[in-house]
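OP here, attaching both records as promised.
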Amino acid sequence: MQGIIIVGIIIFFLILVICLCNAHYGFGDASVKFRTEGGSTIATGHGSCLGEAVADGMKDLYSKLSLSSHKDTIESRLSVMEKTLFDNRNRMYRNDVKVCEYYISQTKLLLERKRAEEERQRKSKEEKERLLLEQRQAEKEEKYRKEKEKKAEALKRKKEKEKERNARKARDDAIRREREKNLPEQRRFIAEQRRLMTDALRYEVLRRDGFRCQICGATAADGYKLHVDHIIPVSKGGKTEMSNLRVLCERCNMGKRDKIETIITPMKEQANLNKKDKNNLFVGDASQNGSCDHEEIIQFLKDQQVEYIDKTDKGGSLYFFDETIANKFKQKGFLIHYTMNGTKGTSWRAAWYIKL
């Protein structure tokens, strides 16, 4: 009888232990929700007990992850899995805990592989960018080298052309000098003076004379072609120098040809010349008798207090700066010229001048 009582007590305690175990580990139909820190549910696990439900949810989370998943997604789910296991570890069987730890470890391996893959991609991208930069730099250097070679080649061709041009000029000069040796002295002089008429000298004469014909005052704007004329022709001993050059229009130059302009000189020996008249500039018309008293002209300008420059000592002209006096000279038959830019003798001021 006592044995039966002892067996009953043991069975009672076993039933009590089983009940306690069922209460602790959750036997029956269990479910667990996996929530993020924001409170949203990302998975739900089901099982006959709490441990199986947690393991089922972790399996579901892990199965949805792959190497193509975003790194932040893997990290977020790993955090949820670790938190869920931490909260339910004490109420789970050891085997279920190991299953959950397995899925957590696999998720960590996946995260490491993902990080390694992203690092590899980053390095690959940096390597491609570096190679692309090196390629562009190499192309730039190659382009610079080709341009440098091209410029060097162009400079070399230019020097060769200049050398050929100088050699050709030296050869032509030698031929010319050899040919001029057989020419008479006058022809050699003419050829030398013609050669001295350079474009630079021609421009200086044009600028000095205000780009205006020194006889009729015509300009290129009037439709006339301007020439640089030798006052004393080269064929008659005139030299190619500024003092013997002037600007003439084509018409005046063709009319002058190779003539030497006659300089009107005082003729005091003409006894029939009348003296100075108060009402007129000079007695006697210069256009009629072709002569005038040089001293009377100068005296008249002094009496009128007119600024003038006497160039007649060099066979030149008498310059003055009064339009009224210029008109009186014109009335008496003198050929009067006007220079807008003046000449060297007039300090480049506008002036009227008369040939004497």
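Record two, same layout:
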Amino acid sequence: MQQQKLFVNSERLKDTIETFADFGRTKANGVTRLSLSQEDISVRNYFRSCCEELGMTVKADDMGCMYATLEGVRQAPPIVIGSHLDTVKKGGRFDGVLGVIAGLEVVRTLVDNGIKPEIPVTVMNFTNEEGARFEPSMMASGVLSGKFDKALMLSKKDTEGVSFQQALKASGYAGEVENRIQEATAYLELHIEQGPVLEKEELSIGVVECVVGMACYEIEVNGESDHAGTTPMDMRKDAFFAANDLVAMLREKLSKLDSELVYTMGRVSVYPSIHTVIPNKVVFTVEARHKDEGVVREVENIILGLPEEQLGCSVSKTKLWGRDTVWFDEKICGHLEDSTKSFGYPYKRMASGAGHDAQFVASFLPSAMLFVPSVNGKSHCEEELTSYEDCEKGVNVLLETVLTLLSE
């Protein structure tokens, strides 16, 4: 551990955040930088130039992920710091890009202080994390981790009919499969929380223990359509009324499971959706998230335990998808926690309800994440904001953790 604690350059960090935001900045001070768009290519070029100025070597893999490496005294699996540069449409200035800038600032601080790391330090930019142009999200990390089929991902098209493969080739960032990251001493990802917890609890840092497990079901209710004016209430098979009863049942039972459980009925379709016709079909989704896989199983049991008939309507349940909780490396989480304590920053251990590249990377590299607060919990919108002071604290913790890992 360093005798004299190092701090990042706060003004340079602020200027870098704003400079990166210029690539796709919107009138409302947000950012639109879809994956492999001209704005994304431009910010990639700028990121490359910043790294090369520091003497780093920059490579790309076959999915367009960028790897900027500061060589170490000896060859060994690198310490990798990463996230993504792409955004959603009319997104914010911090989501994803902060994690890449954090890695850049860590390396700048090492170079400023004449520190040649014992082992290499690599800053990564994952391609198409957001999935806003090419679905699904976390595409490249999904391919690198073997979760997604590469050929299928290359064939994915945007709304203009351009395939991911075509966009990647045109970008100039189609590299070699041999450049993919295969081993690392640690993978670290700093990200904004994208939720209100840290700000509400007046905390500066979240040490992320896991990405929560989840399950998503589709409930279909089938009744009968009849005239809205001539059919007596006791002779109806109203699919919407039945669905409303089912939603009330779910809310009553799910609310009693665990205070950390979150659940959403986010998509509802009513047929035939005519105000003079009794609905004959309703389809709605139920999605639930929790870090304890046992709680997620209880949720599924509740969903599957819904009645098969309600108000004379048939009820069916179909599981659309799910995932198990991804737990991060406890040793690295411990380093992040110790580093946070060493600065005296208020913090908590927490779970991530949103997905991140780190959850896929964790399947083949020792990984961990840090969160910094989001003002009003806003993200994926132009109002997204994290104070520069909190950004600085997050990068300081990251820097201290890298120094700790380098000294082991």
